[in-house]
Amino acid sequence: MLVIGIVVFSLTISHDVVNEAGETVTRTGVDGLLVYLIPDFKNVTLGSFVITVLDAMGQLFYSISVAMGIMVAYGSYVRDDANLVKSISQIEIFDTAVAILAGAMIIPAVYVFQGAEGMRAAGPSLMFVSLPSVFLQMGFAGNIIGALFFIMVLFAAVTSSVSILEAVTSSFMDGFKMRRKTAALTESVIALVLGVIVCLGYNKLYFELTLPNGSTGQILDVMDYVSNQILMPVLAVGTCILIGWFAKPKYVVDELTKNGEHFGRKTLYTVMVKYVAPVLLAVLFIQAIGVLKL
Predict the structure, then answer these.
(1) Predicted confidence (pLDDT) per residue in 107-165, tens digit
(2) Residue 169 falls within a domain, yes or no?
């Protein structure tokens, strides 16, 4: 409800600016929504299209935890009679809806106060630099909207952290025969130490390192790069090879349909896991390590 409220607010705001011709124009949230939803193909090239596809693939890793232990840990807790095909459809619908709402919440507000240039920011700079400046220009209402927004960000971070914590905790319990409390406390201490190091990376331990993909990063960026640009694509390719060519797609299909469920995308799944996904993931990986320049 908070997200929908902020979306409505973003669509109703407006701001007067002076353009290059010296004319006063009014940018509205609806204008920003159109910029967000309507594709602009004017300057699209093959290279930019490929980069967009690769960026979308990278987003999938974050969005639905592809190639992460979260999937394995939570999947092991699913009841044996659960309808996995139905669950997949629900995940697709809700994940897409939340992503669209998030964009409708952020992009119109940034466009209104900072124009198209403001939308070029990405990741941490968009959330912690561009958006606060937007909230500041909203006046007193911006204090409330900004506080609500970052409270939601906090909840999103905590819930994501819990799922990651559970994946590692489950591995500790299985691999080292730890009790749940011991495993959870051990992982929490490790996460706390690494978290402190990351925080110090922006002050006491600050440095700048050029990554293979051309970006400049600090400690957090290096950790993010290693985990999301190297480890996860490698693991995803390995999973595709394991399921597509050794265990065979039929193994997964049989699990999905063992209670009589209908899996209409069986052929599509087989083609994707054996051929399409491994190739695209391999391209994503070699692009991430700087071998492929686009």
Answers:
(1) 888 888 888 877 776 666 677 777 787 788 778 888 888 888 888 888 888 888 888 89
(2) yes
Q: Helices 232-241 and 277-288: crossing angle, nearest 10°? A: 160
Number of domains in the chain: 1
Say if CB 108 and CB 30 are below 8 A apart.
yes
- In-domain check, residue 161: yes
From CA 141, how far away is CA 143, in angstroms rounded? 5
Helix (H) or strand (E) holding 27: strand 24-28
So what's the pLDDT on residue 231?
Answer: 87
For residue 253, give the nearest of 272, 280, 236, 235 by alpha carbon.
272
Domain of residue 161: give its range.
1-15+25-43+82-200
Partner residues linked to 18 by β-bridges: 24
Q: pLDDT digit string (tens) for 2-52?
A: 778 878 888 888 889 888 788 999 999 999 999 999 988 887 888 788 777
pTM higher than the cut 0.85 = no
| Residue 74 covered by a domain | no
CA dist 254 → 83, 85, 164 (Å)? 12, 12, 28
Assess if residue 70 is contained within a domain: no
Task: Determine the Cα–Cα distance for residues 175 and 169; give it in Å rounded to an integer.
Answer: 10
As a whole number of angstroms, the distance between CA 136 and CA 144 comes to 11
